[in-house]
Amino acid sequence: MSDSEPDEELLSLLRQSLGINGDPNHKQADTKVLKDAEYVYDNSIDVALDTQGTKAAAAKIWSLMQEKQYSLTTWSEHTLHPKGKDAETVNFVFLMDLLNFCFWSKNPDPTQCFSVEYHGQIFTGYWSLVAAIHRALEESIPITTPSFWIDETRCTNDLINHVFRSETLELIPLIQQRIDCIREAGRILDADFSGSVVTLIHKANHSAASLVNLLTTHFPCFNDIATFDSKPVRFQKRAQILVADLWACFDGQSFGSFHDIDTITMFADYRIPQMLHSLGCLRYSPPLETQIRSLREIESGCSWEVQLRGCSIWCVELIRREIKRQHPKAEVNAILIDFFLYDTMKQRVNDGLETIPHHRTRSIWY
User: Fold this and answer.
1) Catalytic site residue 269?
2) Checking CA distances to 85, which of 79, 149, 301, 357 falls within 20 to 30 Å?
């Protein structure tokens, strides 16, 4: 080979490290979440977007993000989020988002809801899950190790119940479903990815969308798809938030390096629709609003729930576009907007400033 000829093997390795496929006919990976959310929005009759409210919200959100200096690093500033930058941290984040669903309680007394005591503090909701994982590791229980999940002689159901024990009489919601997710993920990682979350991430070739698709293709418990007007619509909340949390945890480097991170949408859960309604972005039909305000459950996968989730994703996308239109140099994507809205809504709840309850759906999807 002459000095003027390219080293194709070296170029191939470089493309791979950057997540670039050398085939000009290769299409960039697509989760189809945003496309499906737009379809739901276009065909919704019980959830609507207020155009002026959305524009006003975009201005307010960006102003507050600037005021609070809210950025990617804010994620790691949360006390309980892992601070390491190694494979063990990858395992922690994987388990955290494998089980990141359904923490709300029917009990009107917040002191009697599922909660976890850790280092002298009581944590509820999502933070109770993160605290429980930390607590287990400090008790020398290897709860973040995938090979442990499939060793049912050591990792018994009773032990998993112990890991997620509560300070109250109320158990963590959907405990059997959480156990099932742990077992399923352990088996699939062992069979398809040499028992390694790191191997799974490497197979995505630094593509956020590819990692979402790998998760939803291989792991049924990540494949968050509903049906709307006889059409399948993808939400993929936990698969997307796993990618986002890796990106945030590793500061966009190493295991969190994704060349297409902006393809990830908002994570369709129950807190962000609540916040978007409070901001005047979302409006509900009278029957749906009555259902939510009366704290009556909404069935997972029903039309109301799909509209709430799909319209929320599309609303955050419109907020993102409006911020970029007003501030072309703004470094903002749907992930950061979601993180900010979630943190803000949780603070409003703690301050007693809720203007509408969140909708109540029992589901492993969020």
Assistant:
1) yes
2) 149
